[in-house]
Amino acid sequence: MDSRSARKHQAILEAATTVFLNKGYAGTSMDDIAKLAAVSKQTVYKHFADKEKLFAEIVLATTDRIDAMVDLVAAIPADAATLDENLTRLARQFLTALTQPPVIQLRRLIIANADTFPELGAAWYEQGFERVLATLADTFRRLTDQGLLKTPDPVLAAHHFSGLLLWIPVNRAMFHGSAQHTDADLDHYAQGGIRAFLAAYA
Hints:
This protein has 202 residues and is mainly alpha-helical. The chain contains 11 helices and no strands.
């Protein structure tokens, strides 16, 4: 793909992301995407065979953003003196990343189309959130082996960790038109979640 074609490809992806998030899958047309991308509809079809394939590429491309979160989780140091601080810092970054309005919008969009595209929803979950959970479980297993945590079931502990952090802000945001939390709220959720987690697993 030459540079001009690559620029058009990227413009189509960016335009499609905006339109899908604003109008939903059913409400989006290839004409809408072409107009926002400032290309012809023929050009859109040259890059993507149909709307479904374009939607799938946009959804699965977002799983690449999980890499940074995976790296953060894997890098938690084995230091008893700073375990609380390190987990709280991770929790706050976790909350910040997963409560961004575009992430919440995408989550709504995927759930809304889960019956239509079940394989796509499953792939997004497995390549994204489940990968973070697996890394959390590996990290908790390592910290348990080093005597800093007590996690007889590290996978369950990973689910508890994420649930303690995300249940309130994500559910609240999912049912409102926009995120209903402040930075102070996220600090409170992070600190409270880690206190509860360590009470169970330290």
